[in-house]
Structure formats: C-alpha cells, structure tokens
Write a structure and sequence with these properties.
Length: 316
C-alpha cells in the first residue's frame, strides 16, 4: 500500500512541472507588454520608452527568461503571485482569497445537487431498465448533455426570475441568489452521473456475485443497495473526484452570467483588464487542483479496490 501511494505521489511532480511551464510560457506569449499595461492602469498620460524600461525593471521583466520562470515558480510555492495590474496595491493572492469563498460556496452547492439528484435517479434507471422511467431519463440525459451552461443559465433566469419573479438574477445576497447559478453549474454533471451510475449498476448486475447472492436468498433490496450500488460507486470514485475541480473551473461562465463575485468573474475581469498576474495564477491553480484531486481520489480508489493497488505496486 505504501509503495502504491509513494508511486502515485511521485507521479504528479512531472505534471506539476509541465503545468507551471505551460502557464508561464502561455502568458508570456501574449504580444502586449505587461509593463505598458501596468502603466496604462496607473493612468499615465504619456508613456515613454524610459517609463516602460523602468517598470520592466520593477516587475523583473528585464531578467533572462529562465530566471523569471524560476523566480515565479519559487514565489508561487509561497502563494505569492505578485501585484495585480488592475488594482494597484492589491496582491494577486489577496484577490484570489477574496473571491475563492464565493466560488467554493457555489461549487459545493452544485456538487451536493449532483450527488442528491443523480444517485437516486441513476439507481432507479438501472433497477427499471428499459421501462418508461428509464426511457424518459435517458432522453433527458441526451438532451441536457448538449446544452451549454450559459444557455441553461439564461433560460433559467428568464423563466424563474423574469417571468415568475421567484429568485434574483444576480449578485450574492444569500441562499436565494445561490439557487439559479448552482442549478446551472450542476445541470450537465447531473446528466453525466445519472448515465455513469446507471451503466455501472447494469454492468454489475451481470456479475457472478449477484447470482450467488440470489441463490443465498438475500433480499433484492439488500443485493441492490449493499452489493450492486456499493460496487458501482467504487468505480465512480475517480470520476466524482475529478468533477470537483471541473465544477470549480466550470463556474467561470456561470459566474459571469449571474454576476456572481467568485474566481470566474475575477478571471473574466482580469482578461478584459489585461491583468496578467491574476490570469497566470488562476490557470496555474486550476491545473494544480485537477492534479491534486486526481491523486487523492486515485489513492482512495486504490484503498477501496485492492486489485488496483496490487497492480500499481507490481508496476512500481
């Protein structure tokens, strides 16, 4: 078990290195000079070459490429991403920490909706396979998977907020403001997990242990819940784990639609304001989130399924 965990932990370092290199190179490929952007944000009326050179030295942009990368990575490990160009005197880390709680609130609510809805619906679809309920839900899954989140958000806003006047359309003024963006973020993931749980349960129903359980005279409810559903969820662990960073990253469009003051809105504003340090930090953090959550749930799945753990240790 220890060998398996060590191998999985060591495997993330090349990925983290690749993410950091990609993020740094990607931002530095943008043709606009960050020093010029910083001067425009400071509302300097006339920008001269000397001013640009001074700001480049101030921001460390006059140093060799590799040295800038090493300095940036070293600072990022301490959660120091520099100063925001758009908001003078505000650190990038401070801006992220200010917006992060709202994004976590939205993504947590959406994740709970996904679990609470998709688990019983996927279970019932498998139990009543090819009956009217399963056919209706399969049609629902087919339709909703193709719907972009911004379109769902605008549709909900029009029906629930404009026509029915039940919920607010924007802002963060309490739980009522959370409902529409939360449903919008969760919408496509509900469809994905309904299909995943249904298919995994149907596959497990064909296994020999189900036949043996029936021969032993176990109740059908016990077989379905304690054996088939339990084993089906074990194979969903990694998918569930990867959905968490996907939910956080997926809020970027929804937050813009509903004017939700989270990381997504911060990133969109930073793109329009050419606030490169914030964009760079956002891309890096989302990449790290994917790697870390994949690691955690891979290890968790290895703990739950000894066959994966043994296979991993043999390959080590």
């Amino acid at each position: 078990m220890n060998k398996y965990i060590v191998k999985r932990v060591l495997s993330i370092f090349p990925l983290l290195l690749a993410i950091s290199v990609f993020t740094f190179v990607f931002i530095n490929m943008i043709p606009q000079d960050p020093a010029e952007v910083a001067l425009r944000v400071r509302q300097v009326p006339v920008i001269t070459e000397q001013m640009i050179a001074e700001v480049q030295a101030e921001l460390g942009l006059d140093k060799p490429y590799w040295e800038r990368y090493l300095n940036w990575v070293t600072d990022a490990m301490r959660f120091d991403f520099g100063i925001s160009y758009a908001k003078q005197g505000r650190t990038v880390a401070g801006e992220i920490l200010h917006a992060l709680p709202n994004t976590l609130q939205l993504s947590t609510f959406a994740f709970l909706l996904v679990i609470v809805i998709s688990l019983p619906v996927g279970f019932l679809c498998a139990v009543y396979k090819d009956r009217w309920f399963d056919k209706i839900m399969r049609g629902f899954v087919f339709l909703t998977t193709a719907m972009p989140s911004y379109w769902v958000g605008l549709l909900l806003m029009w029906i629930v907020s404009v026509e029915l006047n039940l919920l607010p359309t924007s802002g963060n003024d309490g739980f009522s403001s959370l409902i529409l963006p939360g449903i919008t973020v969760a919408f496509s993931y509900i469809s994905i997990f309904i299909r995943l749980i249904r298919n995994n349960m149907i596959e497990n129903m064909r296994e020999d242990y189900v036949l043996y359980a029936n021969v032993r005279g176990l109740k059908q409810r016990t077989i379905l819940v304690k054996h088939i559903l339990k084993n089906s969820l074990q194979t969903c662990v990694t998918a569930i784990g990867m959905s968490i960073p996907q939910l956080i990253a997926g809020t970027i469009v929804v937050e813009s639609v509903f004017a939700w003051p989270g990381l997504g809105t911060l990133c969109i504003d930073s793109v329009f304001n050419r606030d490169f340090p914030v964009i760079q930090a956002y891309v890096l953090l989302i990449g790290v989130l994917f790697v870390v959550f994949n690691l955690i749930f891979d290890i968790l799945q290895g703990v739950m399924d000894p066959k994966l753990r043994v296979g991993g240790e043999k390959n080590a």
